[in-house]
């Protein structure tokens, strides 16, 4: 059972816009930044979004993040076949002796 | 090039021990906090442990507390995870990741706990 809650799956057709939600609590998303990672099969996770809505250099502006209260969302516009991957949200948690918490991951399928 | 390379994974029997290493290069390792994150086969990411840049502050997930020990050697640019009393549920790919944004990850090393 992951601390952050994500839908297990999402899908869309090429060119569409899809969103993936991430729900937490006051001790994590409610009081800390949200991060998003993309994981292609057999590879390490890659940072997509940091500090709620910032993109590292090299990440296309088709990817965007937002946060409101204890929830966050990742939006992918102009969906492409290479976007098919697992997506994870993460945040620091203010609970005693915990640093990071993750969502369970969302498998994005491009139809 | 900023890089993290894990090693030390393998097959171990339940109750056994294993020590993972993570070699850092391309950045000033001693300035960064570090983490271990694992991923069981077909499952999601699970944070395992954190260590501050000096090693003075350490956190563990409840699932490994009392069994795993994180440490670092800044002179050798290396991060370690000593894993004792291993269980089948510890089977996973173990990644080291730099704490700032979790923006730098290694390629992972597979630990399989099985008899």
Secondary structure layout:
The complex is a heterodimer of chains A (111) and B (115).
Chain A: E1 9-12, E2 18-23, E3 34-39, E4 46-49, E5 63-68, E6 71-76, E7 85-92, E8 100-102, E9 106-110
Parallel strand pairs in A: 1-9
Antiparallel strand pairs in A: 2-6, 3-4, 3-7, 5-6, 7-8, 7-9
Chain B: E1 3-7, E2 10-12, E3 18-25, E4 34-39, E5 45-51, E6 58-60, E7 68-73, E8 78-83, E9 92-98, E10 104-105, E11 109-113
Parallel strand pairs in B: 2-11
Antiparallel strand pairs in B: 1-3, 3-8, 4-5, 4-9, 5-6, 7-8, 9-10, 9-11
Would you mind describing this structure in some detail?
Chain A contains no helices and nine strands. Chain A is mainly beta. In chain A, the strands form two sheets. In chain A, strands 1, 3, 4, 7, 8 and 9 form a six-stranded mixed sheet that branches. Chain A has a three-stranded antiparallel sheet with strand order 2-6-5, with no helix packed on it. Chain A is globular. The model of chain A has no long low-confidence stretch (mean pLDDT 96). Chain B is an all-beta fold and 115 residues long. Helices cover 0% and strands 50% of the residues of chain B. In chain B, strands 2, 4, 5, 6, 9, 10 and 11 form a seven-stranded mixed sheet that branches. In chain B, strands 1-3-8-7 form a four-stranded antiparallel sheet, with no helix packed on it. The chains are: A mainly beta (111), B mainly beta (115). Chain A binds chain B through residues 2, 35, 37, 39, 44-47, 50-51, 56, 86, 88, 90, 97-105, and chain B through 35, 37, 44-47, 50, 59-61, 95, 99, 101-103, 105-108.
